[in-house]
User: What shape does this take?
Amino acid sequence: MLRIRPKFRRACEEISDNKDFYLKLATAIVFVYLLVTKVFVKGVVFPIETSDTYIGSARDKPFYEGCVDTLSYLKDPSYKKMNATFVMLTKNDEIDGVLHSVNSLESHFNQWFHYPYVFLNDVPFSEEFKKEIKNAVSGDVHFDIVDKYMWQIPEERTDPEAFKNAIDTQGDRGFLYGGSASYHRMCRFYSGSFYKHPLVRRHEWYWRIEPEIDFYCDITYDPFFEMAKHNKKYGFNIMIEEIYATVPNLFRYTMAFIKKYRIKPKTLWKLFSMNHNILKTSNQELQSWVNFYRDVEPKLAEKIVIEDFLRGENPEDSVGLGFLIRRSKAATPIVEDQFDNEEYNLYHFWSNFEIARVDTFDNPIYNAYFEYLDRVGGFWRERWGDAPVHSLGLGLMLDVEDIHYFRDIGYQHSIMAHCPKNAPNKQLVYKEADSRRKRGFFKNRYDSTFENGCGCRCKCPRQRDTEDKSWECMHRWKNLLQPEDEELNGGLHEGYVDVKREEDKLRKLFQI
Ligand SMILES: Nc1nc2c(ncn2[C@@H]2O[C@H](COP(=O)(O)OP(=O)(O)OP(=O)(O)O)[C@@H](O)[C@H]2O)c(=O)[nH]1
Ligand SMILES: *[C@@H]1O[C@H](CO)[C@@H](O)[C@H](O)[C@H]1NC(C)=O
Assistant: This one.
């Protein structure tokens, strides 16, 4: 029989003597635990994190949730290897970062699919660089230089002094990378030149990669093939907001381009532009006062109260009089950075990750757009990034359905990371196709699964997901995926607030 030691027995007796106290203590501990885990982490303080929710609809959703049995996928008669390549612009001295990226990509994807690589540089790659890369990859690899005309900015060739001054000034004003000429060249190159390089142009699809990136999940199907199958033209992984100071005139010129070439933006435009012409009304005064959805109710309430006062049914009404006086004194609000009632919300697909058709950019509209932007000098007068340029360009040409969000791909570049939760019941055991990609005991352990997860064998970093950090962008995307989204019908999303309906609602409320 189990004999309780005297000391332990005494302790137990003490506890039962102080039963009340310990009961309270235990309750307090449970309460604090619940508060911390359920309320603060999940509940009240941060409502529900975007990364915990389901994002998807018939317009776009992950091609697969969880793992796919890659060997049978590859053997399926309907599967076809695509005319596709990875592409990276890099420098000789970044070899360690490049190897890091290539190893991550091979381990998580390319060891099963063997897609080729294209490495581009403004100076020749060293023999050492080429040798190390060739040893790491499982597909063909090509190296080339970018010719001077693709690489240099026109102003740099024609007026080096003006070019240098513009760059130096941006440096002095402290814009991120604004003072670095090579960063400007890189942005311009990725904005309008990379897809014209012969090594890229001879493919139908590309996947852009960078040095020092990480993949966190296994990609067990072929993203190129699935994109083709689902009629997708451009795939992204992270969406963030641009720093305003780098693109102050990009939207103005984009709008000018739209006018000049009579372009009718497609539905994706709505992801990037806020239209301030939101009322369905011919009332000019109302139109100019209401720029945001939040202005609708106060402005209509004011209108109703003033109209009621002016009808003179209620001459003692000091509220109505007050409204009238206030309105006559106030100035129409001015929205800076608004062109033709539209404003860039600064959202963009983070273009260091892109899986897309080459002709998504290599086509007459986008090429004209790039040339227009190049001519007005924004790549050197300002520091237009390739990401906002790509995004606005896509908005001109594509519909929401043409875009794919690779939510199931865990990806990190510099300080941003997106990493999905693992899909429940759809995790398969890892089997390497390449002996260099063996995973030891610790590497073969993955995060636990989650209700709305879509990842396959993800091992995520302890870092807040970009879906949560830039949740405004992701909410906009999520809303545009909803089939019932009225804004998606028709051209620009103007006039979506029915003034009469809103007014009637308020009148009922005020009983006027
Ligand atoms: N060959 C060459 N490659 C460059 C040059 N400048 C940038 N790159 C490459 O372009 C890619 C992006 O440049 P980075 O300077 O790393 O920019 P980043 O840190 O990704 O920029 P953010 O994402 O905006 O922070 C990298 O792969 C660089 O190797 C250059 O002067 N020559
Ligand atoms: C791949 O696509 C490019 C661009 O469309 C084309 O020129 C090339 O012939 C294709 N290659 C193959 C092998 O189909």
Remarks:
- The chain is about 45% helix and 10% strand.
